[in-house]
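Hi C.,

You asked whether I'd gotten around to modeling the 89-residue construct. I have! Everything is below, sequence then structure, no commentary in between.
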Amino acid sequence: MSAFDKICALLSIGVGVLFMVLGVIGFMAGSSAHFTLPPIIGGLPFFLGWGMSVPLIKFWSRTNATASRRQRIVVAEERPNFSDFDPDE
């Protein structure tokens, strides 16, 4: 992930967590914005937050695991032997 991707993911995860908190509160007390939701249905913002946060967190951890795996593969590859190099040729 590039730096821009990570910044966008952090902002999205933050908004998603906010929706999850509001969803938990809405589940118990209801939700009111430009519309009003009764207590049980007021938990719907939780699922919006879940849908925003969890895939980003899983993708981020997967890209970190892939990057470390790539580093191990590069280290394990055979490196060229420059001791046989003859500059006079």
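If it helps when you're writing up: The radius of gyration is 24 Å.

Thanks,
B.
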